[in-house]
Specification:
The complex is a heterodimer of chains A (about 240) and B (about 650). Chain A has eight helices and eight strands; from the N terminus they run βααααββαββαββααβ. With about 240 residues, chain A is α+β, with helices and mostly antiparallel strands. Classes of the chains: A alpha+beta (about 240), B mainly alpha (about 650).
Chain lengths: ~240, ~650
Amino acid sequence: MPTEVKGVVELLKASKEFAPDLLKQYQTEVGNALTTVVTKARGFIPADASLLSGWSKPLSSDAANYRAFPKFNSGEAKRKIGYKTTPTKANKAGWSYLARIVNASAGGAIYETAGRKNKDGQPNYKRKSVVYRTGGNGPGDFQINYYEEKDNSYRKGFNNSLNPNAGKQFINSLNSTGQLVNARPKGLTGNPGRKSTGRAIYRAWAEDEGKANAAVLKAIETAGFNFEKKGFVFRGRAK
Amino acid sequence: MSDVSINIVSQFLGQKAFDKAGNSANKLASNVKRALIGVGFEEFARRSVNAFAANEKEMAGLSNTLKNLGLEMQNASVASYLDKLALATGALKSELVPAFQTLAVTTKDTADATTLLNLAMDISAGSTNSLDSVISALSKAYKGNVGGLGKLNVGLDKTILATGDLQEIVAYLSKTFSGQSKTAAETFANRVLRIKTAVEDAQEAFGKGLVDSLTILTNSESIDDLQKKIITFGTEAGEAFRKLAGFVKDNETALKNVAAILAGMFIGSKITAGIYVLIGGLEALSATMRILRNTAVGAYIAEMAVLNPLGGLAAAAGIVATIYGVTKSLDMLSNKFDEVGKKSINMGKNPIQSGTYLATTKKLVNYTKVLTAEELKQLKAKQLKLAIDKANLALGKGTDVFDLEKIQLNAALIGQAEALGKATTGAQILAITNDVQRLKIKQDILALEDAIASQDIKRIESATATLNADLKVLGTLQSQSFTILGIKGILDTLKPKSLIDQENLNIALDKIREMLRLLAQTQTSVVAGGKSTRAVSGIPEGDYVPPVVFDPSTSIDAVIEYADAATERATAFAILQEQENYAAYLSLIEFQRKLGDLGGYSPDMNRGGGYGYNSGSTVTVEIVDKTSGLIEVVQTAVQENNRFGNNLNFAGAI
């Protein structure tokens, strides 16, 4: 009676136990497929000097009791772009991802995604003006301008800089080194969401035009085929 | 933001989502059940009988055709083939039967017709042509007219068509469209069709069961006989009803038990396991249940579950709901029978007087006993099956790792190693250990096979455990082998490099000396003979660490000593500066404290980021018009006073 596995996750688990050579082969094939995208993505990471100088300068003090805005380091950002071939844990909806390309550094992730939600940076608070009529509608009146407080006292999601154009200037500087590209395959119906848009890994994935994806699926097919050749049954072929 | 990623291939594993799906299925089942209990059951029964009638008509037509062609012996095998083909591909039997009939008439051979039908299914699945059009073209081609095949646009060259050689054409088409229908059957849409086909088949089977039941229950010898009885229902219905109700009353417990078994099987969702229970239960009750053909239904569910668990589930759901509905109807019939019985047969007598109570109770007790014994038997069989399944699983693993050729090869290697003397490396020792472990697994497998033959559950479990343990040991050994190979690979890459030798060291030292010499020249120009000036650093003249003379003869130690001293001195000055700053800060605090209410003292007033720093406050005040109205107020007052004669130019006046 052949040992039976279902699905790719089960195939990989079974391979790990009964045919580690197949697992190694699978990981190598997937790795080869994804390395091309990773290498290309690393090429899209700019040098420190190409961006606003303050972003890559080290912090003046390490005594801050909050997490400062992450600094950008070109070398670290490139180094932390990579791939993973181990399946993830199932998410809330029950889906597990078998292979991933990651941009794991904080600076790299900011370079990847900045401007995809707000192309001109985070919005400023709404400015409000109140005039105090101490001079009877004449000289002596004075006006106070202030930024209206939102319901939440925490200012996340708003421009915290004294410079109202800070976000726009920051994003313009990033755009000068690489544009945001949507990785969604062309030809699909519907609106491409911003979630698959970026300057490094998403751009590299888009420019790869599905070749790496096909190679990963092929690697799964091959693993299943080789697994069956060993006398096991694999019923969860990639579709 | 630190996990920006592209997810490439995904698989659905979710337990939560599956639970939700399960709940939805349960709700659906209960809704179906509810619908079937009411008027829905009648509709289902009517459709079932119709489906059975339509299928019967098609199959009768095919059977007649085969008989006319002298192929009546193939009738059963053709019917079976078409059933399986419909289930495997999701094609409708209403399409397959006429198609096969056409091909059988053309070829006058069931084998050729089967081959051509399979080919037609592949072509239809692999192109945009309907099955009908492909069958028509193939039939014509079989008779020599291959023009129709060209119009199908299936890639046939005119040269191939011009030859008119059907064998060559069929070979080409088989090669081009091989496996298309099988692939198409695995698509989601076709899986749904396959489930639909399975449910329709279940409906046909149920319809057949109903018709057969009516035929048997009314003591009819054929459908014609049943029809006559239905026509003369007005006169004979009373007697027929009595017979039907009597049968139900006699077999009430048995019918309910079967319904319970089926319902339990469905609710537990353990179709495969449930089928064994079901078949066992049905066998025990076969004497009565054969009449209603429920054994056929049970076997049908079993077949569905093996071919396609989802199809089996759907079929089981429909049938359980149906049987549940039937049971309800039987209850009603049974009650009616009691009423009729009271009124007609046992008029004026209670059940004890009439003897029906004792008879019914006896039957109930007997059935309960049979069922209890049967349940125990089934439980035992289930345990044995479970143990055998586990053992077979382990055997599967064992068979995989036991490779006779591999062992022979390794044995030869070991022999060679022995011939050379002794094993010289860890890898060789590991290989020998691997082989010994494989042989041990082989022994375990033999022991397990013996245990299975003896059907001793404990022995099987023990042998399975031993085999699994040995397999684990072998797995560990293999991974060690892998690690050793990995280490070897790493070692191979670490080839010695002559980076550090005396010559390189000398060259490096020369380079350092050259650098120091150049540095010394630069420093000399800056410090101007080793003297600092107050104007630049604020350090009193003459207060400095005398620098070393940088030239090739200066030792490294001297340079380091100078650097340390200079650093220490700079640190001391930095500390001094900080202390001065702090003292100034304290004096500022003191000054502000003296200011009192004028500036509003706060302990934190000199801390933080200063103007513009946001520490949670949300109001930014910006004074736009800095002009004070005071001047105008004073000016107006002076003018008013002057106007009213209050001259302000004189001292003492208002």
